[in-house]
Request: fold
Amino acid sequence: MPFHQSHGSDYREHNRDLPDLSALSGWIAQDAEEKIPETQYRKEVERGLELGLPGADSITDPDIPVFQRGELPHWSGINTFLKTPYLEDVRQVGDYDVAFVGAPFDIGTTYRSGTRFGPQGMRRISSLYTPYNFELGVDLRESLKMCDVGDIFCPSNITKGHDQITKGVAHILSSGTLPMIMGGDHSIGYPCVRGVAECIEGKIGIIHLDRHVDTQEKDMDEIMHTCPWFHATNIPNCPPTNLVQLGIGGWQVPRAGVKHGKSMRSTVLTIDDIETLGIDKTLEIALEVAWKGASAVYLSFDIDSVDAGFVPGTGWPEPGGYLPREALALLRGIAKEGIAAMEVVEVAPPYDISDITALLAVRAMMDTLATLVKYDRIGGKLES
Ligand SMILES: [Mn+2]
Reply:
């Protein structure tokens, strides 16, 4: 008798009832996909055929144009973020639900520079993503009108660069569009929050994922990337009691920042706290503190909050941070309640390996957006 007929047949050919498999997220996700329309995808294909000309006679797939005008192939095309349309006329940004914007700024770094290339690094590897997320059952292309407004012009002067960033972020948000900001070093947290604060009536909470507190007044006589939350929390509607810092710890937390943090009574959770409490309890605390009496929350994700082994492409790597899936779970949990804007900072492509740091940074933005869609926390919806 052949081996495949004799071994383990009593076990394999059984009549037992299967467990309930419909509770698996894989099962639910497969059901969810069926309900997502393909309207915008079809529009993109039709537009591609019109503008890029129908494919050569030997091409049997009728959706393939001669000149690439859409998502496919992932390895080619003109890279805006997620290949969304480049919005040259920023006066029209209010026509979109979401605007990706770069803040290529790295003169606030205190060790390795290179985050001025962060936006381009993120845009480049964002071409690897499809707009659809399996577990969340969301297709961003079908749910959101998105554009890439390009980069804010940041001259090599901290004050002027910060002023430009404030004006750019405030323009996007005051147009009714969600800014998704690609840094840039972490000094941009201050001008970004300042821009948000101009547009929001009432208090703003800040949820900050990082290894570093970033709460000192100055570093080497300037407002560097170690300083954003000292200054942001001096904005009248951004009180420090609504600042939550998640994942802090290690050997790169300057004592000057710690002293100020204690005096202003922000909330700090270490990686150990988060591991002990678990993701759900951590989120409960973070959301309670940030949202207390607030009308909006700003989300700041420093890529160096993730363990240095996963994010070589950053300026101040610190071992012992989050696993990528922990960071993503936190971001999704924060997004469930809605955000006014998000920044992803400290991606420094010159030190990256195979784009893995930028890849995670992009995923952080994508997961946040898809969660906002899933929980209906984002502005307008597309007309079909
Ligand atoms: Mn940091």
